[in-house]
Amino acid sequence: MRPTKAVIDLDALRHNFKTVQQKASGSRVIAVVKADAYGHGLAQIAKALPDAEMFAVATPLEAYTLRDAGIEQPILLLEGFFEEKELPRIVENDLHLVVHHSPQIDALKRLKTDKKLNIWLKIDSGMNRLGFKVDELPQIENDLAEVECINKPVRLMSHFASADDVEDPFTSKQIQTFLESTEHLVVERSMANSAGILEAKSAHFDWVRPGLILYGCSPMIDSIGADYGLKPVMNLESQIMAIKHLKKGESTGYGRHWFAERDTVIALVAIGYGDGYPRNAENGTPVWVNGRTVPLVGRVSMDMLAVELGPEHSEKIGDRVVLWGKELPAEIVAKHAGTIPYTLSCGVTGRVHFVYRGEL
Ligand SMILES: Cc1ncc(COP(=O)(O)O)c(C=O)c1O
């Protein structure tokens, strides 16, 4: 069997969840598990978090997958519903809804149901992505008063644009905007994502919404999860599948993107962009091989990549390789690939074998 696998450590996940609870001790936790739990496996991750008071996903289908897996906690649809005809199934599955534009309120006004839905009104505090502008709020409050099928008062939420940068004063500005525009309302609030949980304590409010930090990575610029006491949940691993001796001046891989500067030895590793390893990882991106870090050399192929072991090497075919995880922080690999750790775990493809470790 091809040795390429993602080992998912559920004990590390629970450790990170507890870390969130400690850091935001006055708040309740909505575990963000959208995009297949950031590529870690939606149902497995949710089942391993029995203490999460709520889960958040981006699409109704992700929520139904959780229900089918037996998840009973409340589930929040972060973008609400996309089509009015989805509403009956959303009601049937007892999902919480973000409401971020007026057509959604109009659709709720038309909804005929005996049940009451739980709504989170999304306020745009400056990110200019989803949500109502603060000057629209008085009108929206009037509109919501006419909606019969929702529990009142509704909850409020907002989202940060740049909380990953502690130097950026925009985060405080957003908190101020969110608070000032809603101070007349006695309701539950949610604002903090992972970065807000780590570095913007005044935004913890009633509910926090951690995503990335649950999976053990840091969203903060130039830091890794361990800096905040987090443990990586995903270890992306493979093995050496071939070893090759190169003369000085020879190249490896497509496009002849790297040339040996000395007589040297390279190893071919059984993982490529067809598995989700980023093709744009540059020469020199660290790869962990059998206890040491060696540089990626040449272009990443679909099914394999090359690393330089150097002339004095002891590695052999079958030796363990870690692309990111406990031995090598995903944040560092992401930087070498011009991306962020979010895209690395989300990008691991279906042909990678997933192995779950730790108690369920
Ligand atoms: C609305 C909302 N809240 C929370 C999160 C979690 O963010 P993070 O993974 O940075 O914690 C996201 C993720 O993009 C989001 O869109």
From TrEMBL:
Binding site for substrate: R129, M302
UniProt GO cellular component terms: cytosol
Claim: Isomerase is one of the keywords in the record: yes
Pfam families referenced in this protein's UniProt entry, alphabetically: Ala_racemase_C, Ala_racemase_N
EC number: 5.1.1.1
InterPro entries registered for this protein in UniProt: Ala_racemase, Ala_racemase/Decarboxylase_C, Ala_racemase_C, Ala_racemase_N, Ala_racemase_pyridoxalP-BS, PLP-binding_barrel
Reactions catalysed, as given in the entry: L-alanine = D-alanine
Role according to the record: Catalyzes the interconversion of L-alanine and D-alanine. May also act on other amino acids.
UniProt-recorded name of the protein: Alanine racemase
Organism for this UniProt entry: Kangiella spongicola
Taxonomic path: Bacteria, Pseudomonadati, Pseudomonadota, Gammaproteobacteria, Kangiellales
